[in-house]
Amino acid sequence: MSNAYVIEVFHRTAGIVVAEERGFRFFSSEPAFDTLEGDHFGSARAAERAAKALVLQRSHKAGQSHRHGSLSP
């Protein structure tokens, strides 16, 4: 059984998780996922969900910023 897994979200490699005694530690592979660097997760799937949520959150914020910008005089 492997002790490291690649985490991909939306066709992007977010990073890898490495199995440890307490679960999995995340290592970012690109700056967009650096906020997860070193975080611990109970499973590789949980790390994948966190990376996906990060992308969706940023996408949502970018959309709001764009819409609000278009409403400005």
Describe it for me?
The radius of gyration is 15 Å and the shape is elongated. The protein contains one helix and four strands; from the N terminus they run ββββα. The model has no long low-confidence stretch (mean pLDDT 87). 38% of the residues lie in helices and 32% in strands. It is an alpha+beta fold and 73 residues long.
Pick out its properties:
73 residues; 32% strand; alpha+beta; 4-stranded antiparallel sheet; single chain; 38% helix; 1 helix
Summarize this, please?
The chain has 73 residues and is α+β, with helices and mostly antiparallel strands.
Question: Topology of this structure?
Answer:
Blueprint: E1 4-9, E2 12-20, E3 23-28, E4 40-41, H1 44-71
Antiparallel strand pairs: 1-2, 2-3, 3-4
Order of the strands making up the biggest sheet: 1-2-3-4
Question: Beta-strand percentage?
Answer: 25-35%
Annotation, overall tally of beta strands: 4
Q: What is the makeup of the main sheet?
A: 4 strands, antiparallel
Radius of gyration: 15 Å
Count up the helices.
1
